[in-house]
Structure formats: structure tokens, C-alpha cells
Amino acid sequence: MMEKYKIxxxxxxxxxxxxxNTPFVPPDRIVYVMDSLDPGKKIKAEVMTTRIKxxxxxxxxxxxxxxxxxxxxxxxxxxxxxxKHGKRAIYxxxxxx
Length: 97
Ligand SMILES: [Zn+2]
Description:
Mean pLDDT: 89
Radius of gyration: 16 Å
Low-confidence stretches: none
Bound molecules: zinc ion
Helix content: 10-25%
Strand order of the largest sheet: 2-1-7-6-5-4-3
């Protein structure tokens, strides 16, 4: 029983790793992010380039709100990361509400 559970968990984790969770471009194309080290502040970020995935438009690069360099999606951190203005910054996407 325990073994079966372990195998299932392993398969689940593997699936999660492979899953591409790149965020979609919102209908109004306005994206808000939050610095994961300084949460609470909602920052507007500009979508730079997009690509099509499963017939939907996803964000390929997002302009860094600090240095304006393109940031790509990091699946592990579940955010857009920038290494260009000092220490690595991770920006999580927030819903515009
Ligand atoms: Zn930056």
C-alpha cells in the first residue's frame, strides 16, 4: 500500500515538473507583478513578446519593472526572474483586481 502511494507521488511530481505553467496574456494585455521579496506592492509590467501555446497566447518575455530588460518565465520559481539589476529578482504575477 505504502509503495503504491510512493510511486503515485513520484509520477505526480514528474508530471508537475514537465507541465508548462507559463501564464497567459490577459485580455486587456495589462500585467501586474509583485516582487516576491517585497510583497504587497503591485507593479505594472509591460508584455514584450508573446508566443502561442495550445492555441492560446502566453507571455514569452515581460519587461522588468526596474531595469526594463526582458524577463522570461521561470517554472521552478513560478515567476518572471531578472538577474540584470543586482541580485536575482523574482516577480510573481498578480491578478488585476
Ligand atoms: Zn531587472
